[in-house]
Amino acid sequence: MHLHHQLQSILSPTYTLFKKIGKKSGALDVNSLRVIAYHDIPNNQKDSLFAQLNWVKKNWNIVSPTQFELMIKGDEPIIGNNVLITFDDGFISNKIIADEILNPMGIKAIFFIVSDFANIENNEIARLFVANNIIPNAIVDNIPENFVNMRWHDLEVLLDYGHTIGSHSKSHFRLDSSALNLDLKEQLIVSGDTLSNRLGVDIDHFAYTFGDIDSFSEVALKIAKKRYKFIYSGIRGDNSKLISSYSIKRESAAYQLPNNQYQLFSNKLLGSFLDGFADFRYRKQRLKIDSWAR
Question: Is the dihedral of CA 189, 130, 278, 45 positive or negative?
């Protein structure tokens, strides 16, 4: 865990106390709308995720993608603390989590899928794809064995369960200012159309890869706006007073270890992010992407 995360965990109880006082006094808004972003969930962390989602459920209202859409559009009021659950990349662990945890808990989530990744039918080729695209410049021998993909039939099952599928680009391409316009259209438009045609559903949600402001661009957002109704970043922040449905903020819920596996944040640390403890660090990024989305 990074040093600033350790410090944040230590300071978060004090911050939470002051925030509660601020809400009771009317100085702070009592309503919020956050989005949690998960990725692969290793088998040895399934119990931790189950415990974490139960903890989240006790402290926040977990909304479905449909409820989230209504809140973002202003068709349903945002009352209290609300959170949407999402998963990126399309790892097979996401299907297992849906089967064993999300469905029994009654949680509906959005799964952001890399369309080229879903096409792969061989586990070793899937791990090579991860090394080349999802964790660029990684050595395939250092890619965990569990980093393999959900395939089209898995995505169909997720839809049958009532979950939502979104696009996460065609090949997990970095959509920054160095990308050519032609590449951007393929990554943004073709990926959504492929998912829609293969699955027979509208693909209205898009989360750009890598998540930080330097991995996206105003040009890319302009193209994405023509294809999708909701666009998600990896920039932390509250969405209850959202400028645009094209600049939705999300809270990463894990960090990567040296062996590339994801490690879930503790409940205390995740809670501090959901309470807005780190929002100030992302203010400039939020302002920038909001200006692009107007």
Answer: positive
Is residue 47 classed exposed, middle or buried when 0-12, 13-18 and 19+ CB atoms within 10 A define those classes? exposed
C-alpha 242/C-alpha 79 separation (Å) is 15
**Listed residue (211, 182, 206) closest to 194, CA to CA:** 206
Number of H helices, E strands in the chain: 13, 10
pTM over 0.85: yes
Residue pair 167/191 in contact by the 8 Å Cβ criterion: yes
Which domains occur in the chain, in start order? 3-293 (3.20.20.370)
- Please state, in angstroms and rounded to a whole number, the distance separating the CA atoms of residues 134 and 235: 18
Closest CA to 216 of 286, 282, 289, 280: 289
Can you tell me the distance from the alpha carbon of 146 to that of 139, in angstroms, rounded to the nearest whole number? 15
CA–CA gap between residue 292 and residue 217 (Å, rounded) = 8
Q: What are residue 252's DSSP bridge partners?
A: 37
Instruction: Please give the C-alpha separations between residue 203 and each of 59, 103, 114, 131, 216, in angstroms, as whole numbers.
Output: 30, 22, 13, 27, 20
Residue 275: pLDDT band by 50, 70, 90 thresholds? very high
67-112 pLDDT, tens digit per residue, is 999 999 999 999 999 999 999 999 999 999 999 999 999 999 999 9
Residue 270, token pair as written in the block: 């995740």
